[in-house]
Amino acid sequence: TLLPGDRFLVNKTTYQRRYVRRGDEVVFRVPSEGVKWVKRVIALPGDTVEVKDNEVFVNGQQLAREPAPLASLGAAAQEVKGELFEETNAGRRYRILFAADSKPLPDYPQAKVPDGMCFMLGDNRNNSRDSRT
User: Fold this and answer.
1) Per-residue pLDDT tens for 20-68?
2) What number is the average pLDDT over the span 4-20?
3) Distance between CA atoms of 86 and 64, rounded to whole angstroms?
4) Cα(24)–Cα(39) distance, rounded to whole angstroms?
5) Ramachandran category for residue 46: left, alpha or beta (phi over 0 → left; psi -120 to 50 → alpha)
6) pTM, rounded to two decimals
7) What is the average per-residue pLDDT within 104-120?
8) Are the CB atoms for 33 and 129 separated by under 8 Å?
9) Helix, strand or coil for residue 100?
10) What does residue 11 show for φ and ψ, rounded to 5 degrees?
11) Residues 6+ apart with CB under 8 A from 24
12) What is the pLDDT of residue 49?
């Protein structure tokens, strides 16, 4: 999970060598806003996806999620207010956060991901503009 002030490198050639996979973090430009977003790939073209009561389902299977201690963030733990989890998607584990000061986003009804598209969610789940919106 990226925190405010984090810096990271982006490899712009990765997807010239392989297809995108569930669990990848992807940086992309939002043309209408002229900014770059960082989101997590949750579902691929042809998958069905649903978000219900903050639980994510891909192809009818709920993504496994277990609590992670805030202390695992080291010094940054003092800046984080909310619940931290480790989610598993297609064998890949990553951290997600449900911020304490944000309202849950509305459910996302079951839908098939169109060809050429991916379903993306932010790791800061209830405070993210992503494929749900």
Assistant:
1) 999 999 998 888 888 889 999 999 999 999 999 889 999 999 999 999 9
2) 84
3) 8
4) 8
5) left
6) 0.89
7) 93
8) no
9) coil
10) -95, 110
11) 40, 41
12) 98
Task: State the Cα–Cα distance between residues 129 and 133, nearest whole angstrom.
Answer: 6
Q: What contacts 117, CB < 8 A, 6 or more positions away?
A: 45
pLDDT higher than threshold 70 for residue 115: yes
**Alpha-carbon torsion angle 69, 72, 75, 78, nearest 10:** -20
Cα 111 to chain centroid distance, Å, stands at 17
**Which alpha helices (DSSP H) does the chain contain, by range?**
14-17
For residue 47, the model assigns a pLDDT of: 98
CA dihedral of 133, 20, 58, 109, whole degrees rounded to 10: 20
